[in-house]
Design brief:
The complex is a heterodimer of chains A (about 150) and B (about 240). Chain A is mainly α and about 150 residues long. Chain A has seven helices and no strands. Chain A has one domain. In chain A, helix 3 (about 45-55) runs parallel beside helix 7 and helix 4 (about 85-95) packs across helix 6. The model of chain A is unreliable at about 15-20 (pLDDT under 50). Chain B has helices spanning about 1-20, 185-190, 205-210; strands at about 25-30, 35, 40-45, 50, 55-60, 65, 75, 80-90, 95-110, 115-120, 125-130, 135-140, 145-150, 155-160, 165, 170-175. Chain B is elongated, with a radius of gyration of 26 Å. Classes of the chains: A mainly alpha (about 150), B mainly beta (about 240). Chains A and B meet through helix 2, helix 3, helix 5 and helix 7 of A and strand 3, strand 9 and helix 3 of B.
Chain lengths: ~150, ~240
Amino acid sequence: MKKALILIVALFSIISFSGISSSQDVTQVTFLSELDNKSIATYGDALIMFKLQSGSTVSAKGKKTSDGESYALKGYTESDTLTKGMASLMTARYLDLGGSFMYMILDIERYAYKACIANGIFRADGSENDKMSGPELIELFSKISDMKGGK
Amino acid sequence: MKLIKLTLAAISILVFTAALHSEITVIKIEGSAAYKEGNKWVPLKSGQKLAEGVKVSTGANSYADIKLNSKNHTIRVKPFTMIQVFSKETATDTNTHIGLKRGGIMAKVPREGNVKTIFKVSSPIATSSVRGTEENISYGPDTGMIIEVVKGVVEGTNTLGRSNVLSGRQKFIQMYSKAEAFNILNDVKNASIIQIYGNGLTADEIVTMLYSDDQTGSPGGELTILDNQVQDASVNLIIQWPVP
């Protein structure tokens, strides 16, 4: 009995000190690396990025979005090309953005984009119809992470 | 005889090269962070030693603290970041070069008396050089390279060789399409001054009134307030310089 207890404690210590205990999601890093090489990002890519930011894993890809995921947009499929307007609306909902009176009245892509400009997320010299690349989508999430109080 | 000389030369080169490379060590990991081994991403572990030229990447809500040499030069690799690290050191100097492919890092480079320090962070469009400082650096295709000083002095140089020396609240912002970085006080100005129009209305308020007829939203409401919006205004400012 004593031997078994010592064995369990030793195993636990080895696992803790080797850093294996904190489960790391390497598929996430691989996904980001692939996204980084995409010249055009899709709505599905954006959905996955929001899920990752919310603490989910890449394996959530393709799964139906739940009611709690306010950033999900209606009328798009996962293969649709992502525009700055779509990403803005998802971001504005996720971060509950202020900064644009019109967005507070109308929850649409055009005003969400203006709210994102007001909050320094996008530059003012673009359009909500601009297509987004993979690196641009990752950059958007670096900013979201900062605004969420990233480390 | 020739063989002995050759062997001795090879050993000397090996010993000398080994002395040049710094020990790159992972101090702390939170969330998902990995390094590239061949074509595969492998999870990082606390206390792990990394090879010169290693690529490190972090995921969402993740970070990695990495010690770059024995002089306690450290970086925090922020979420969604990918970097490549080169670090060399001898007893009298350190030479660190970080390639920032995307995302952001926070660098701490404490000054040490007679050690010559070269610490550079490069993105495809600019480079930051620091000596005894703390700085935040980020890079992305939309906003370009941003260098913020936390403590000390930093120099930002774009690919055309145009540079700015930064301290305090100054910020280096270099975008892809521009030959020069923005004015280093642009950010301070934007945070302090907002554009207002006649009657103290902001652009948003004017748009709202145009869409809804007036502030109360009643049809055919009062709109004369929107006349002559662009006016000259006089502002009195008292500028106080901090006492050194």
